Structures are given as structure tokens and as C-alpha cells.
Amino acid sequence: MDILKETCNIGLGHASTALAKILGKKINMTVPQALFLPLEEAISLGGEPENAVACINLPISGEISGLVIFIFDARSTFRLIDLMMVLPEGSTQILDEMSKSLVKEVGNILAGSFIGAISNFTGLKMCTNVPELAFDMIAATLSSALILHNFAEDQLLVIETVLTESQKEIKGYFFFLTSPEDLEKLFAALF
What we know:
This protein is α+β, with helices and mostly antiparallel strands. It has one domain (2-190): Chemotaxis protein chec. It has helices at residues 2-23, 39-44, 74-84, 97-122, 138-148, 180-190, and strands at 28-30, 34-38, 52-62, 66-73, 126-128, 132-137, 155-165, 168-178. Strands 1, 2, 3, 4, 5, 6, 7 and 8 form an eight-stranded antiparallel β-sheet that branches.
């Protein structure tokens, strides 16, 4: 699991660099933990089941196929929008069309950088596809994403991520879902 966490750190390091270039600000991204969890436990990471979250889904294709999901609670989502739009913290209270587009693009940048780094690190060809965004209760967003992409596995790779800019934290969860066969292929390439 340590090599997986280190690989995630490298991938998310690339992602934070890409985001920092766009913003023109220093962005740190850390991975406090990376672990496999059953779906029920993964859902509980978002707090209460009825809490609203932004769920950015990005299908992956190539030698490894699957799904990348970013989950940010409502507060972190609004903080992210304020950061990206250079607004005072607390300005964003709802998701309008522009905000939704911005959140999807951030997910696209982060996932693309992450998957690109993992692909380079392992030599396995992978790419992300068009992002989708849902803003709803965590159980509904995760379940819908899994059903939409025909994902039936019980174990999810969950990577806690913390973005920090000027002492302001944006905490989220990054889910990497793939088949057991593709996961074995990924681990074989890592070792």
C-alpha cells in the first residue's frame, strides 16, 4: 500500500502543479491516506448521508479502464470556486452554470494530471474522458456514478486529498475504480 500511496502522491503532485499554473498561485496537495474501502464506508466519508457533495466523474480508458471520481463537500466546493474565480471566501453560495463548468474543468485538470502521471510511472496507457458533474447527497451521487458506468466491485480505492492555498484547505476524496484484473495489472506495473 505504501508504493500505491507514493504513486498517488506523485500523480496528485503533478495535478497540483497544473492547477497552480492556471491560478498563478502556489497550491499544495497532500495525500493523508490511501486505502481500499467497501462502498458503504466510502459513502460515510462525506459525513452524513444527506449532506450535499459535488461529485466529478471521469471515465478512464486505455490499458486500464475504470472511473475516477472526485468528491468535495459543499463548503469545499464553494471555496474551490471562490479560489478559482478570485472571489473573497464565502462569496459562492450556489452552483450556477459557470460554477459547474469550472468545477468540471478542475476535476478534468486534476484527474488528467493524475492519470497522466500514473500512466507515465507504470508505462500503462490510460486517458480520461469527458467529466460529468452531480451535486447531490453523497450516497445518491456515488451510487448513480457506479450504476451509470456499470461498476459492480465492492472495494473502492479511496485517496483522501487536501488542497491548500494560503492556509485555506479544500478537502476532498479521490476514488479510483477499476476491475480486479486491471488493478492487478496496475500493481504488477508498480512493482
